[in-house]
Amino acid sequence: MPELIKFVPLLPLLGFLTLGIFGKKIASEKLIGIIATSTVAISFLIALSIFFNLAGDTTAKPHIINLFNWFGAGDFTLDFAYQVDRLSIIFVLIITGIGSLIHIYSIGYMHGDRSFYRFFAYLNLFIFMMLNLVLGSNFLVTFLGWEGVGLASYLLIGFWYDRKFDGFHITWTGDAANKAFIVNRIGDFGMLVAIFLIYMNFGTLEYIEVSNIVAGDISLYDTGLITAIALLIFLGCTGKSAQIPLAGWLPDAMAGPTSVSALIHAATMVTAGIFLIARNSVIFASAPDAMMVVAIIGAATALLAASIGLVQNDIKKVLAYSTVSQLGFMFAALGSGAWIAAIFHVMTHAFFKGLLFLGSGSVIHGMHEEQDIKKMGGLKKHMPTTYKTFLVGTIAISGIPFFSGFFSKDEILWKSYVSGGWFLWITLAVAAFFTAFYMFRLLYLTFHGKERFDADHVHPHESPKSMTVPLIVLAVLSALGGFIGIPYALGYFFSDHPNLLENFLSPVFAQADHILGVAEGHHVHAIEYILMAVSTVVAIIAILLARSIYKQDENWTKAKSLSKNFGFAYKVLWNKWYLDNFYYGVFVTPIFITSRDFLWKIFDLNIVDGAVNGAGNLTTAIGKGVRRLQSGVAQTYAAVMMLGILILIGYMIF
Amino acid sequence: MTILIATLIIPLIGAFGVLFLNKDNRKLIEMFSLGTSIVAFLVSLGLYFSFNSNAEGFQFVTDVTWIPAIDAGFRVGLDGMSLLMVMLTTFMTPIALLSSINSINKRHKEYYFMFLMLQFGMLGVFISLDLFLFYIFWEIILIPMYFIIGIWGGKDRIYAAVKFFIYTIVGSLFMLVAIVWLGLHVGGDVLSLPTGFTSDYLLIKQHSAAIAPDVQNWLFIAFALSFLIKVPLFPLHTWLPDAHTMAPTPGSVILAGVLLKMGTYGLIRFNLELFPVSSIDWAGTISFLAVVGIIYGALVALVQTDVKKIIAYSSVAHLGFVVLGIFAMNEMGIQGAIIQMVNHGLSTGALFICVGVIYERRHTREISEFGGLARVMPVYTIFFGIAMFASVGLPGLNGFIGEFLTLLGAFTSTVLDNIWYAIVATTGVIFAACYLLWMFGRIMFGALSNKENQGLSDLNKTEWAMLVPLLIFIVWLGVYPNTFMSKSETSTKQLVKEIEQVELDLNNGTINMEPKKN
Fold first, then answer.
1. Which of B235, B441, B448 sits opposite A608 (nearest CB)?
2. What pTM value is reported for the model?
3. Residues A486, A410: contact at Cβ < 8 Å?
């Protein structure tokens, strides 16, 4: 059964090739949509059957499916192989499942676009690469997928290549695409060096072998080495998953079509970093310092991004900062050793953030490409389905019991308290408070209150079925999806193992948990209930606050006075903590100026070329002098020749 | 006559054939030359398929005495590395000739004669097993290339051609001195041949490793200087941007695609094989310069405004990876370097053709003149994009394989024994993305605001014919490089075994690195 996995990436690849090569000749949007969607949907069904097969196998043994020998030299040889295990299959299901829904949605969303086929070709390419990323049995197949999704992301961010997009040093969507790719490359540098160090020290790049070596006799290796490898891998993750210090590209990635933002920049690609750390949990568990860095960066990003989200007015940018923040939660979980909680949050986040992005796409679609929530309002009655589903997503992300986000977020908060103490918990709780606030602010400004758009020109309308059906499916998942991960504290009275996801995934992390010394079994702690209650109350307060400022106060007097009274804080948040300014001022501009004004104009053109041309001129001058010797008189030549021979002979003798 | 000699002389026959054609019949001259190069390619396929990848040593060997007085022979043969270089040459030449149809508009007869002579010379360089013969071929190339830049080139073509000529000739004169010394030493001092001289590569190789280290050192420098100028290694690179910018498109294609590889080929064939002791000695210094070149080339590429200059400087960076791999002196490094030589030829060749496409249409290469071309030239955008990402080193395309292996080689190299070369070199992947993506974005994306660009036509049939074969191999080498890497595996293994032996001897003190005391 697991051998069937090869068809899972193969189908989207075929879809990509078909649409990429022949797509232009296919006139029917419907046919293009069907080709693209069916490849992903069939892959989902295959993956689902493999999932049940794996779930039935109590040994939970990973399967390695070898496709071909990719390349090698000397002792180094590398197979293009897939690792089918409980971890990868969960991600495959998310990718192809959410992927199918978003493909369907895009048929409606991209309707009438000049390059309809190109869009779906790219989308299929993305799915193919993302599947390679999570299925790879070694670092390099993952790296292929890792770079491949970066490529797809680049192509899709810049999909509307001749549209303007406003950002820091960004004028066109293409600039945003470049930024995404280049910032990611900085992370890739870290990942590549990690890969080299791993091969150098362990002699293999296969995940299972590396894990076994590290879990084996770790005393053979320097802790510094393991920590360095872990941190370098994490550098790669901060790129792909938009964490500090490489977070800046994700909000600008919103230049792409909204369904892309939902699929790539919320539900799947940006969670690649979480996958990679989970896949290498053994390495991280063996490097406590690195774990601490991951937790701190995660929590800091969660808080920082959430705070920026408070003041954004672009519906997609709010969601983008929210995504960065939620990814921060996941890294905080990983850093706390709560691997399964992180993956649980990947999953619920895929549901509700996918839903919210698609909902925002529906709004943008209905509002004729308007994205500024200050120019919206009152859309509730024009777009009832979008509103209801968006509301579900908003409740879910805010952490209201018993929607999906509640379960996963609370598990992260609890685990981070256990391993990181109060400080980590409070940071994340404040971030959660901000989250509930900016999400309800978004909801109220968009769907409630006065209609602030120009009703003569803009006629908001509900989106077609192809768009609303995926919204409904995702809304159901966002509402109920959390029940696969019921914490022991809430479910112990009906089962000893109420957390289905944990039951399924725990064998994957057995080695890492062993290293961390996590005890088997569960206990109920009073404090867990207290924290759960506190975080729920925090969310409710945030919602009420947002309601009083943005819903009940139609003239925004409170909002205005807030931004005036906290002018400095507002300015800092509005300018995104000046992070982009910092990078430009400290790195980009100096490198550019040094390269142009010193390396090129002075060093290359003057020093090196100056020396060459100087030598040339000297030769010319000498040549002019020597020309006199070339008198054309044979006797002179003969004399000189004799002299030369005499000197040579003299040299040889002495 | 072996297939190898057939491959070699077909371009020569073609070149002289061109001389008999009517100079006004442009079409005939073009088709005849193109036909010649395609025949050469087809014949070379015979080499590829009959080459035995598992056999050690050289194949298709011919050894004919040529100048008995100095024991110089017409000695040619192939090992895995030279096979790949020969294939690269026979593959790139028809493509370059195709691009000549669009870009060469005067003195066709002379041009095609020169170009086929150039191919003859390049093939000779890659197959010579005789130092004298090698030197002749090495110098033959200078002349046609000099004229191709100097006659059919751009505005400052004379300056660029002279600079190219002087740079290269300075290097090769040192090499000539070294060849003469080696011939006298091995032919006279060691073997006491009746001629007192030999230029037989295999004979010299048997005895060169035993040359006293201090002398070997000078010989190494003489050869290396010549090759490193050709590569070009920082800081010997300044001829390249000028030569590339001024050369016509096919000149740039062949220059980047094949000519630069003569330098890296020479480093392996002569420096590593003949002087392993000195190679180990110099590995650190040269690798250092290679790493500087990777960063420096990328940074300078970043600030260029002429598309061709960007790609020219990118070659400095990319060839830096090749040199780093060579002087890692292990199997990963050298195999990576060889495949990277092929890769760079394909992807940079494709990039130069892409630049040529817009240059033919607009007669400018200034980036600021373009923008938004994706709207009018969608196919071009895709093809350019693939070549660009290959050059960036995206996994799945060819550039990644070579970069990865050379870096892995440098990381694990016992000769370099310092991972910082490789770590710093790895930052090159960031900069490569910067300059290539910025270049690509500014040409292709944004609004099509320049009126002159609005009527541009997408690729024509000739341009399709040039780019599609290159792109096929760009993908092929990225997905399944074994097809090609397996060819050079045996010869690389053999070389590395020799180097390891020398390393071992050095560590055991069997070879004394101290200069001999007089």
1. B235
2. 0.92
3. no
